[in-house]
Specification:
By secondary structure, the chain is α/β, with parallel strands linked by helices. It has 13 helices and 11 strands. Helix 7 links the parallel strand 6 and strand 7.
């Protein structure tokens, strides 16, 4: 066995020792957290780092979270299975990565043409979203906490411009979640891969296009060096990141430690949105200076995407009760909120 494989297997074997210390005993609780992000990934990995730091500070050092970056303990997209199986205590990742296990997870990640970040947070906190999410997670032996929101994500990087609906036929694109299901109906060959793999796939023409996040993160990866056309948003208006515990690891924590972790997750959740906003503006200016062409998808493409979304929702609702339940809650809350968002924020932005 190779040395690296041996180390990984040994670490997994001892990773998920239940947390049973009493908060008043002074004993330390050590938790192991894997992430889907490279160590150098800003915003995403920095949120995981911040969360671990805040938990340690607020607990007076009683809770120590050891972080394992993408691939150092488990594969980037293997974190869900590792936590579900109790091999590690928790992970930080993105919710729609698990739509292959249950399509309902995509709803909690945010949907095409759906809620923006403040609406999404309102649904999670005051519209029943968080409770439904945890109900779904319990079926897989996981307990989710809010772990960040990137806000508006761009529509992706394309090597060739999309000037009409027919240009999507046969295109090979990296995209997750409901956005992938929508584009698949329009003839796009969608693929899923971890963020750290996308650049080389574009550079080597393994894929023709990819979405990732937004200017700050996309600039840090360097997608503008291998794809020229950068399209505006439609598929991920508010993408949810997550801190997800193994249910036994979570239940083994004293209530006061659970409260500390919950508060830290909420702090990290808001921080990610703020950091994204702060970094995206200057990053977008930088990309424009480097010759990136920002484009908006043609009207016929957006009309086709909206129609396809309706078909996807109908199909998933018919075959998956979990999806139906989550979608009904999400869509009814969106319907309730969108007029106020349009009148309040929308009209303000028109006049600013």
């Amino acid at each position: 066995m190779k040395r690296r494989e041996f180390i990984q297997k040994a670490a997994l074997a001892t990773a998920a020792i239940p947390a049973v210390a009493s908060a008043s005993s002074g004993k330390k609780i050590r938790l192991k957290m894997a992430t889907s992000w490279p160590a150098s990934m800003p915003i995403l990995q920095s949120t995981a780092d911040y969360f671990a730091k805040r938990v340690g500070e607020m607990s007076g050092g009683a809770i120590e979270i050891k972080i394992y970056h993408a691939g150092s303990l488990v594969p980037p997209l293997g974190v869900f299975d590792a936590v579900s199986a109790g091999q590690i205590d928790l992970y930080h990742s993105a919710t729609y990565y698990w739509s292959g296990k249950n399509s309902a997870f995509s709803v909690f990640a945010g949907t095409p043409f759906g809620m923006v970040d403040n609406e999404m947070l309102a649904w999670m906190r005051f519209g029943g979203g968080l409770e439904l999410w945890r109900e779904l997670g319990a079926k897989y032996n996981v307990y989710p906490l809010l772990g960040g929101n990137t806000g508006i994500q761009m529509g992706g990087w394309f090597k060739k411009p999309v000037e009409k609906l027919a240009d999507l036929k046969g295109l090979k694109m990296r995209i997750p979640g409901l956005g992938a299901q929508v584009l698949s109906k329009l003839g796009v060959n969608t693929v899923m891969m971890a963020g750290g793999e996308i650049y080389l796939a574009l550079e080597r023409n393994v894929i023709d296009a990819s979405e990732w996040v937004a200017p700050a993160l996309d600039l840090s990866v360097g997608f503008h060096k291998v794809a020229k056309y950068y399209y505006t948003a439609w598929h991920e208006p508010a993408s949810t990141a997550e801190f997800v515990f193994n249910t036994k690891s979570w239940a083994g924590l004293p209530p006061e430690y659970q409260a500390i972790i919950e508060v830290a997750s909420q702090d990290a959740n808001v921080r990610m949105t703020a950091e994204s906003q702060a970094r995206n503006a200057p990053a977008m200016r930088d990309l424009l200076r480097q010759g990136v062409e920002v484009k908006t998808f043609p009207a016929d493409v957006m009309a086709a995407c909206k129609k396809a979304l309706g078909e996807v929702v109908a199909e998933e609702s018919a075959k998956n009760p979990d999806f139906k339940k989550a979608w009904e809650s999400y869509s009814s809350f969106l319907e309730e909120q969108k007029d106020w968002t349009k009148l309040g924020l929308g009209r303000y932005l028109e006049t600013r």
